[in-house]
Amino acid sequence: MADRTRTSLARLGLTEPWAEGTLRDLGWWDGDRPVQGAEEIMWALARAPDPDLALRQVERLAHAAADWKRIEAELHTDVGLRGRLFALLGASTALGDHLIAHPDRWPLLADTADRFDPPPDCARRTANLLRAVGAAPAAERPRAQATGTAAVTALRTAYRDELLGLAAADLAAVGEPALPVMEVDEVAAQLADLAAAALTAALAVAVEETDPPEDTRLAVIAMGKCGGRELNYVSDVDVIFVGEGDLQVATKLASRVMRIAGEACFEVDANLRPEGRQGALVRTLDGHVNYYKRWAKTWEFQALLKARPIAGDAALGRAYAEAVAPMVWSAAGRDDFVTDVQAMRRRVEEHVRPDHADRELKLGRGGLRDVEFAVQLLQLVHGRTDPTLRSPSTLEALAALSEGGYVGRDDGANLAASYRFLRLLEHRLQLQKMRRTHLLPARTDTDALRWLARAARMRPDGRNDVVGVLTNEWQRNVRRVRRLHEKLFYRPLLTSVSRLSADDNRLSEKAAAARLKALGWASPEGALGHLRALTGGVSRAASIQQTLLPVLLDALATTPDPDRGLLAYRQVSEALATTPWYLRLLRDEGQVAERLMYLLGTSALVPDLLVRAPEILRVLATPTPGQPDELTRDPAAVGQWLLAAVARQPDLTSAVASARSMRRHELLRVACADLLGTLTVAEVCEALSTVWIAVLRATLAATTKAVAGDGPVLARIAVIGMGRLGGAELGYSSDADVLFVCAPAAPDVSDAAAVKFATAVVEGVRTRLGAPSPDPALIVDADLRPEGRSGPLVRTLESYHAYYARWSEVWEAQALLRAKPVAGDVELGRAFVELIDPIRYPAEGLETEAVTEIRRIKARVDEERLPRGADRSTHTKLGHGGLADVEWTVQLLQLQHAGDVPELRTTSTLDGLREAAGAGLISADDAAELRAGWEAATRARNAIMLVKGKPGDQLPRSGRELASIATALGYPADGDPGQFLDDYRRTTRRARAVVERVFYGWTA
User: Which one, of 781, 847, 788, lies nearest residue 812 by Cα?
Assistant: First the structure.
């Protein structure tokens, strides 16, 4: 019998061991089944979100209610009461406690036509709450009789009574499927009306407590969800106060309203007022208007979109709404509209804790705020010319956008359905304990998930239990919101510019251009032209583009230059039109598409190279588990691969073409990895240097073979890297500074013959590599050779020795500090190093005159070579704390001390800095400042080339190029690029201070 009873109770959802005894005490259970006549009561109990909780609360109510027998009798006959009571008690512990504390309120749940059909309106609720504090509802300026604690208590009880009735009606269909379902937007609207009623009653109490003069007027303007009549069960109520007359008294009145409503009903938040918390709580109408005209940010107009007078002086409230409306609907034309909107979107995303991201109903991706943000942005863009869109309600506005053709009808309906679903979950979560929350239970908390699913009227579907149904629905709706968020802005644009068939209206040319401008395009007409070209026709490629572009445009809109990015995407797409895998890769590999849009919207160099090296797109994909990431290949392996591929070519022309092609591929790969943040600045420099060296080696070998022809090779040739090539610190725009050394290839070859042969080879290398090309130039610069441009291009080892022994100057010794063999004959390269080591690492260090000479040369270089009009604070090469400052400082230390400190004998600037600090020649802090300055200048110089597609040393002062450079260096695309400039100046200023002390010997 006991087992059968437990089974019967479990079938009803009752699992607690005390359930049977409680049911017997209530007289609803006998043996192993309900007593006769209590079956309907038991089934209603079983449908409660938590039957055990509902039963426990019924037991408490039975003990608390003096007329329990009457309530019980009504439960047997009143289907509505039965459904509402059990659903409420099984869903909300807080409202259950209120009913048990005030058991005489049970008629609020009874099925009376005047309460639930139709639902109560705002006027009746306002009258109920005013009566609760002793105010006359019909009075022009209601004044309460109750004050202080008594008024707060009375208002709290009346407010909870109204919540009790509304929540019961909202939950009724959970307890009894035959009862009507209240839609979530209807519930939200009634909650907003209830909040307005509460504020009206609080104002009546405040008037009694402060006794303001007759000419003191105060209007309460609802903002946010309350203004949009889409309030939650538990939410702050955002307001703005407008006053006239004695503002000091009006402010006191507003403060009392906030305190009374806060203690009785809900928190009142006035932080959306002008100047936020720092601004005056109450302003006159003129004060508000002047602020919005002169100082308001775009987000403040976005907030005002929901402004609605709800309490206080009605005429003043209407005047406020009429005054601010024109400013709201012209906000999209402001110069800073896009920047402000992007900043607000970023702030919203930053509020989400990473460990809550997949459970956040409100702020997470695919959550409520995504829907609200998208709808509000479209309203601001198109509401300027279409008054039908000017609704403060998200769902009403979405319906109007759909009806007007600004959003596809299916998309609008699906987005509205997902929004209602998410709001329903939010309401149920808040009802449970009447606490503010937007967080789903953790996946491991199956009991909480089961309660939520039942409270949201979900049932098992045959394949999943109720928890599985909830989880699947949550994920499906989040994915749908994310997808529609992308389509919402861009799909109608494609409908307007292509031959897509659509059930809904097309955006006009003007509306389409307005939307693109609002989303960040400086030239919307040009963008529409690109979209027409990409989606025109009936080809498969056009069809795929129509599918891809909503996602791609959404990604492009977050880049610093979407205009250039869209143009680049069109050029790349046209160049790769016959490449079968191109569009398929973008369609099937989401990360490739996302990364490509970022690269195209940030860099001019990447798209320029991409049309000639499209295969690089494949390395943008996520690597297969266990496979290396092709985006960050080992530079040494890359060099070997390039040499081997070039060596297989049959002739010099093919070999050089192959070397150029592979260099282009690698240059693009490194640029992509650099922009995507997967390489450090040192790794970028090493990779670029390795590619240059491999090209030199391959071209030297092929040219030597071609010059020799069928005859013997007459000379051994070594290429000595100088400058940044020797230090493995090349940038994207760096030339290859080199020296050429030769020696006879055989004993019977004279020096003159060897030099002649080597010169022909070297000139061939320079001519072939320096030939005009759309790629960044491959200039082999030998101007650092003895006697400069007037001296022979190639010398023998003995000739170098003779020159350096007789004529070498201190600047040449300094230049040799970075000399390193990079190509050609290894033994000859090693011999050259042995020759120059005593010159560049003098055992006795530098004499005072030599140090003075180096400082003089540096000062002259800084003065004469800095371009006219350049800004020293942001010139990456010759500016204060820039590349030249740091490199000359390290080189001076090497000339002075490398004879005694072998560790300083390195061609790398950063290695030299580290060793100088290790040897105690400079402090660790000074070394860190110099390193930071060098890295900042190097990264910025590389970014200039990446963004502009051409060399440059001067950072722009403002504009999109500066924004793109800042983005390329990791700053937010929608942030202030001035922050990057400030950081750069600060870093290089500190480096310059070290240079002045260490290099110039200046003291404070």
Answer: 788
Distance of CA 605 to the CA centre of its chain: 24
Question: Which residues are CB-contacts of 579 (< 8 A; sequence separation ≥ 6)?
Answer: 614
Strand partners, 713: none
* Cα separation, 566 vs 579, whole angstroms: 19
From the list 911, 658, 660, the residue with the least C-alpha distance to 778 is 660
Buried b (16+ CB within 10 A) or exposed e, 383-403: bbebeebbbbbbbbbbbbbbe
Domain chopping of the chain, boundaries: 2-216+223-233+245-267, 329-520, 841-1004
User: DSSP readout, 83-136?
Assistant: HHHHHHHHH-HHHHHHHHHSGGGGGGGS--HHHHSSPPPHHHHHHHHHHHTT--
Nearest Cα neighbor of 43 from 70, 72, 8 is: 8
Q: Tokens for 21, please give them.
A: 């005894």
Identify the band that residue 1 occupies on the pLDDT scale cut at 50, 70 and 90: very low
**Rounded Cα distance, 350 and 869, in Å:** 41
8 A C-beta contact, residue 218 and residue 253 = yes
Number of H helices, E strands in the chain: 43, 12
Tens of pLDDT, residues 37-59: 888 999 999 999 999 999 999 99
Which H or E element spans position 63? helix 51-64
Show the tokens assigned to 225. Answer: 């969800």
181 vs 178, 232, 410, 417, 963, CA distance in Å? Answer: 9, 17, 24, 15, 52
- Phi and psi at residue 818, in whole multiples of 5°? -110, 15
Using CA atoms, how far apart are residues 231 and 238, in angstroms rounded to an integer? 10
Residues with Cβ < 8 Å from 832, sequence gap 6 or more?
A: 718, 720, 739, 741, 797, 800, 819, 821
H or E element: which one contains 990? helix 978-998
Average pLDDT over residues 105-117: 68
Residues 6+ apart with CB under 8 A from 366: 477, 478, 479, 480, 481, 482, 485
Place of tokens 């291009």: 793
Count the alpha carbons within 13 Å of 253 in the hemisphere toward its beta carbon. 33
φ/ψ of residue 533, rounded to 5: -65, -40
Distance (Å) of CA 860 to CA 808, 875, 939, 967: 20, 16, 26, 35
Q: How far apart are CA 759 and CA 117, in angstroms?
A: 101
Residue with tokens 């500066």: 962
Label each residue of 954-968 as H, E or C: ECCCCHHHHHHHHHH
DSSP code for 17: T
DSSP 246-269: -HHHHHHHHHHHHHHHHHHT--EE
Q: Is 660 exposed, middle or buried (0-12, 13-18, 19+ CB in 10 A)?
A: buried
Span 332-388, pLDDT tens digits:
777 777 667 767 766 766 777 777 778 888 888 888 988 998 899 889 888 888 899
Q: Name residue 738's amino acid.
A: V
CA of 245: how far to CAs of 218, 251, 356, 804, in Å? Answer: 9, 11, 48, 91
Instruction: Work out the number of other CB atoms within 10 angstroms of the CB of residue 148.
Output: 11
CATH of domain 329-520: 1.20.120.330
**Spatial separation of the C-alpha atoms in residues 1004 and 198, rounded to whole Å:** 68
Q: What CATH number is given for 841-1004 in this structure?
A: 1.20.120.330
pLDDT in tens, 64-76: 999 999 999 999 9
Looking at residue 120, what is its pLDDT?
61
Fold identical between 329-520 and 841-1004? yes
pLDDT band at 159 (very low <50, low <70, confident <90, very high): very high
- Listed residue (241, 245, 229, 232) closest to 272, CA to CA: 241
**Interatomic CA distance for residues 369 and 354, integer angstroms:** 17
